[in-house]
Amino acid sequence: MASVPMTPAAGRATALDALHEDIARQNMFHFWATSAGPGHDEVKRLMGAAPRAVPFLWSYAEVIEPLLVKAAKLVTTVESERRSLILVNPGLAPRRATVTTLYTAYRLNDPNEVMPPHRHSPSAIRFGLTGKQNFTGVEGEDMTFGPGDLVLTPHDTWHNHGNVGDEPAVNLSVLDLPLVETLNAVYFEHDYKEDGLKKNQQTARVPADYSERIYGHGGYMPRFVSHHRGTGAASPMYCYRWEPLRELLEHHKDWDGDPYEALMVEYVDPVNGGPLFKTMTFFAQMLRPGERTRPLKQTASLLATPFEGGGLGHSVVGGKRFDWKSFDTLALPAGEWCEHVNESKTQPVILFVASDEPALRAFGLHKKWGRGADGDVVRLT
Question: pLDDT category, 30, cuts 50, 70, 90?
C-alpha cells in the first residue's frame, strides 16, 4: 500500500472526530493518541472500558439474614432447588459477580430439606455459618457440616445440598462462575442417573467421614486408595473441618506472622500441596489482639468474611473504612490498597478469605505490592 498523504491541518480536527465516530459505529475502538490532552489518553480509555469492581461491604445481620428469612417463607423447595442470595458488586451490576472473577452467595435451608443432584462447570465451596447439620453430597460422599467447616463441590462433580437437621442452617458459597462465564464455558446439568435411572439422591459410595479418614493426617498419604476423584482437577479432600484449622492458628498465635497478611493459613490439596482449585484458593487469616496489617495491593481479587471476632475490627480498602461484623462479606477488588485492623486488645479476629490467585498465577499475572513502615512502596512478588 502506498503511503497516504496527511490531511492539511485546517479541518483535521473535524475530520478526526468524524473518523472516530465512524469507527465506533463499526464496533471498533481507535487506539492512537492525537494530542497530549487527558481526553486523548487511549491507554487509560482502553483500560477503563470494562466495568470494575469496587470495594463494598454487605451486612449479614442487618440485610442478608432478614432477606433470607423472608425468602424461606415465600420460596419453597418444590418451586426451586435453591434459596440463595448472590452478592452483586455495584461496580459490576447487573453482572452477577461479587468481584470480577468470583461470586459469594448466602444460602438458607430449612430443616430436613435436601435438593436433588446437579453438576456444573464452575467450581464451588460451601462454608458453614449456622446450623450443625448442613448437608452436601459429592460423588457419593455424604457430608454434614457446621460452622467453620468447608466443603468442596469441584467442577463437573455431581452434588446436592440441603439440611438434615431440625433447625435452619445458613452457609456461604463461593463460585468462580464469573470467570467461567467470561471464558464462555458455563453449563449446568440436572439429569442425575444411576444404572440408567433418574435419581433424586446419590447412593453413598464411601463413608461419610472419608475426607477426614483418608486425608486428615498431615504428612501421611494412604496408598491403598485412588486420589483421582471427580475430574481430578481439584483437591480429592472434599471436607475441611474447622477444629484442626482453629487449633493450628491457636498454636501459632505468638509467631511474628507476616506484616502484610498477619497469620494466614491456606487450604491446600493434600496430594500436591497446591490450591483446592485451579481457579481459586481459600485462607483463614488471624489478626491477633491489636494487630494491624500494613497496606497491601495485589492483582488478585479477594472476598473476606469475618468468621470469628466480628464487630471487633475494620478494614481500609481503597482509602475507605469498612466496619464489619460476623458473617459480613467484604469485596477486595484487584488493584486496591487494603489493610485490616483488630481493635480488640484481648480477642483475635479470624477472616475467611477467598481469592482468584491461582488463576492469576496460571497466567503469570499475580503480583503484590506493600507499603513499608516508611510509606515507600515495595514489590513483594
Answer: confident
- Residue 151 has which C-alpha cell? 466443603
Give the ranges where the chain is alpha helix by DSSP (H): 12-25, 42-47, 65-74, 177-182, 210-215, 242-251, 357-362
> For the whole model, what pTM was predicted?
0.91
Reported as type and span, the H/E element at residue 197 is: strand 197-198
CATH number of the domain to which 329 belongs: 2.60.120.10
Q: Mind listing the pLDDT tens digit for each residue in 55-80? A: 999 999 999 999 999 998 888 766 66
* Domain contains 139: yes
Q: Provide the grid cell at 108.
A: 438458607
User: Alpha-carbon distance 351 to 5, whole Å?
Assistant: 63
Report whether 369 contacts 298 (CB < 8 A). yes
Q: How far apart are CA 161 and CA 81, in angstroms?
A: 9
Indicate the SS3 state at residue 271: coil
Alpha-carbon torsion angle 19, 21, 23, 29, nearest 10: 110
Structure confidence by residue, pLDDT tens digits, 165-181: 999 999 999 999 999 99
Is 133 inside any structural domain? yes
With beta carbons less than 8 A apart as the criterion, state whether 249 and 265 touch. Answer: yes
Q: Give the number of residues written for the chain.
A: 381
The pLDDT tens digits for 214-236 are 999 989 999 999 999 999 999 99
Domain that holds residue 327: 56-379
> Residue 256: enclosing H or E segment and its boundaries?
none
Q: Is residue 49 part of a domain?
A: no
Grid cell, residue 197, equals 435411572
| Residue 6 is assigned to a structural domain of this protein | no
The DSSP result for 85-100, as a single string, is EE---TTTTTSS-SSS
Identify residue 156 by its one-letter amino acid code: D
**Grid cell locating 363:** 497466567
* Strand, coil or helix: 11: coil
Domains: count for the chain: 1
| Local confidence band at 3 (pLDDT 50, 70, 90 cut-offs) | low
